[in-house]
Amino acid sequence: xxxxxxxxxxxxxxxxxxxxxxxxxxxxxxxxxxxxxxxxxxxxxxxxxxxxxxxxxxxxxxxxxxxxxxxxxxxxxxxxxxxxxxxxxxxxxxxxxxxxxxxxxxxxxxxxxxxxxxxxxxxxxxxxxxxxxxxxxxxxxxxxxxxxxxxxxxxxxxxxxxxxxxxxxxxxxxxxxxxxxxxxxxxxxxxxxxxxxxxxxxxxxxxxxxxxxxxxxxxxx
Length: 221
Fold this sequence. Notes:
Layout: H1 2-8, H2 11-50, H3 55-70, H4 73-83, H5 93-119, H6 122-130, H7 135-165, H8 177-188, H9 192-220
Helix pairs in contact: 2-3, 2-5, 2-8, 2-9, 3-5, 4-5, 5-7, 6-7, 7-9, 8-9
């Protein structure tokens, strides 16, 4: 038992590794601050594109969503970071991570928004149009608020996945939290920094998980 505690729950090592892991945490939050808002916006445009009356735009958007939902995010990240330089485009690790995760999550958010818009009855649209609202006004003021409410648990769940997805950034040596914890592990020869990082993920994500459950129960009733 003492050896287990020494390897995984060594408080002295955790305290020593804390500044390094904290710097990694700020990088993780910076990635989320870029990817989540932009992903939501990109997803909204993707959903509207999939519902467009313009056939070319609709099929192009469907192809975009299907492609980036199908390709593994790790493969996409490696391609953006290591493949694009062969085309003369060399990106920083942060830019590569932001672009790869943005493309991936715009596709997922887009499908969620599309399902939400589809869940709003046509009667709502017809009633709004009968009051004199235009198509864009109807979408912005009537359909979208109801759509977001209907799929809010799914939006939050996907946001949780985005936070967990940031751990893949260590593959391109971006010093996010997992990368920082692994560097501390390599120096201390102890898994305690990794346990500390896992605990931080748990503290950040557990309230969101409970929030999703609460919204799901509320919608079910």
